[in-house]
Here is the input.
Amino acid sequence: MSLAPTHTTPRGQVVLQPTYFTCSLFVDPAREDIDHLIHVYAERYARSPPSQPFLLFKDIWNNEGWTWLHFKVFDTRSRDAFLKVTMQLLSERLAESEYPLTRAAALFGLYTFFATQPSTSAPSLYALAHLPMTIDMYESLLKLPDVLETDFLRPLRPHIIYVLSALQKAQFFHILPPSNLYPHSPRELPREKFISDGYEQAAYFTTNATKKKGRPSKHDKVKKSKDAVVALDKWLDKTAYTYQPPRVTSAEAPQSVTTHILLSHPPSTTRNNYRAKKSELLDKLEPDYPYVTTEGPGRAALERANLGVVSRLQKIDEEAAAKGMEIGGEGGERTGLRRVERAADELGKIGSLGGRGGLLGLLEGAGIVE
Here is the structure.
């Protein structure tokens, strides 16, 4: 009797990449959770110092749900990054600059997280055997029991000594060079920082639409354009900025003004970087400016670039005019095509704002008629 064929290939599973655990999306919330854990322990310990401090910590650990943290990741590569980063974040609170009670709670957390790694699960889960730690951090950690000499902290001392001896017996610490050499990998946490740019709505519209085969139809293009406009409107509403202008005279207070966040807080860093790169480019094209006697290849390249940009804008303006539209007319003489043409004409005229770069001088005011 023949058996029916069966599938031998397993179904695909969604796996978090290791870089997620070094990103701010994971590191920042994990730091907040660790801070909360230590804060709750310190608060309950200060309320009435217990005779069994570690039992108090275990009770808080269980009540806060930390017992389930090991089942967050199952893939070996991702789990290795997850365990290393979590333990490194716990070890950050072991620094000598921290309050002794905070250091004790962080050590309890590090020991508990290490000792409760599943070892008998089926299928087996990857377990981290060693934690990299700098030599100066390790030496200060060994001196922690000597700091717990006050009556308030003395109940912690025997538990800290036991935890340290247990971690040493397990050869848990992998000693690295001093921290001033930044031996950790990654050097700092978070290594990647997630910055919301406000375009999530546009991504939502594009990813949730059913993708069709072949070239998009005219209807699909129109719909996609409308979705993009809707997403842009929502982003503008989300990043709007309202402020109250100062009162000039004793007259009634002026009305509040609503503008965009970039207009009220200009991106000065980006602008300065642009100016630096532009100066570097112009210095390479015409290092002897304004003492130029003959037109060199640098000036010729600038002229071609200016002419090409102006020609393209003129063509766009013609096509827009044929459809009854106007490009760049909202700001008058400061944003229209005529200003671009005047800035390009200023190229080579020493003393004018666009004399050196033409269109590259728009930021400095090239092409504006006073």
